Amino acid sequence: MTETSTFGNVRRKLAPLVRPVLEHCAPIRYLAVKLLKIKQAGKLQRCGMEFELPSGDFGVTLEAESTGEYEPVTTKLLEELLHEGMTFVDVGAHVGLFAVPATKWVGSTGKVIAFEPHPDNFAMLSRNVASNSNTNNITVVNSAVSDVTEIVHLHMSTFNTGDHQLFHKGKRNTVEVACTTLDSYFDGDEKIDVIKMDVQGAEEAAFRGMRRVLVRNEQIKVVWELSPKQLEDAGSSANKLLEWLEGLGFCFTIVDDATGEVAGRSLQEVLSGCPHDSYVNILCSRRVG
């Protein structure tokens, strides 16, 4: 078992217990974040590129600095899916750990469009683009992606910079951010090859806002994070969303960085295999022929 998979399995078991404590107990959260800020270097070498990471972060930075890498199974899958000349869309790009390497994978004739709504994450994403060479084929967009085109409130996490949410049950400070849909952002005839999406429970809304993109691009691939509890907090459900995607002709592959599993699964197998309080990445694709 790799260090990353060990870390992923431990986090999967402990996160549902630790997250409520950090969310609701301010003194413990303050001390924990302060200790992480002292410990974390805020730097990562990944895919031959240099990245700045947020410090005091119990999400991406904790995993990356604890293991030396980030979601290697998903990374390898995306590198295999992307080829010269393709268009890659990263929805919820955070600081660019997938979007920036994708600039190499799609080549000089390809395009990367990265959406990130949180102002601090977006600023770091922009710096990570600028600090790496040959990234002229990326466009960074300071916007959330959902099913509306308007100003919305983003509920901010104080201990996990990758867990800011459009839909949240509980008390969090919010910031106003722009929001768009992929159907409204992209020209109706634009070819989209691969989408990576991590939007912390807003997946159903984002999918519905890209319905035309999904229908017009028959061979599109979508890698997205399935978290049943976060979907429920947003007023949806994993079953409802998977049925909607199946209705558009998609089949499902589990991409599990905690176990290393990459395997096709039925809708019911996905539902039974995904931890309710955690998450797993899913590849949606249509069968050829």
CA-based shape: globular
- Structural Rg: 18 Å
CATH fold-level topology: Rossmann fold
**Parts with pLDDT < 50 across at least 5 consecutive residues:** none
* Main beta sheet strand tally, sense and closure: 8 strands, mixed
Helix content: 25-40%
Structural domain count = 1
> Do you know the CATH architecture?
3-Layer(aba) Sandwich
Major sheet: order of its strands?
5-4-3-9-10-13-11-12
The rounded distance between the terminal residues' Cα atoms is 37 Å
What can you tell me about this protein's structure?
- By secondary structure, this protein is of the alpha/beta class.
- The chain has one domain: Rossmann fold.
- Helices cover 39% and strands 21% of the residues.
- The chain contains twelve helices and 13 strands.
- The model has no long low-confidence stretch (mean pLDDT 93).
Question: Which descriptors would you attach to this protein?
Answer:
289 residues, alpha/beta, Rossmann fold, 12 helices, 13 strands
In terms of topology, how is this protein built?
Blueprint: H1 3-24, H2 26-39, E1 43-46, E2 49-52, H3 60-67, H4 72-81, E3 87-91, H5 99-105, E4 111-115, H6 119-131, E5 138-141, E6 144-145, E7 150-155, E8 174-180, H7 182-185, E9 194-197, H8 203-208, H9 211-216, E10 221-226, H10 228-233, H11 238-247, E11 251-255, E12 262-265, H12 267-273, E13 280-285
Parallel strand pairs: 3-4, 3-9, 4-5, 6-8, 9-10
Antiparallel strand pairs: 1-2, 7-8, 10-13, 11-12, 11-13
Helix pairs in contact: 1-2
Summarize this, please?
The protein is α/β, with parallel strands linked by helices. The chain is 39% helix and 21% strand.
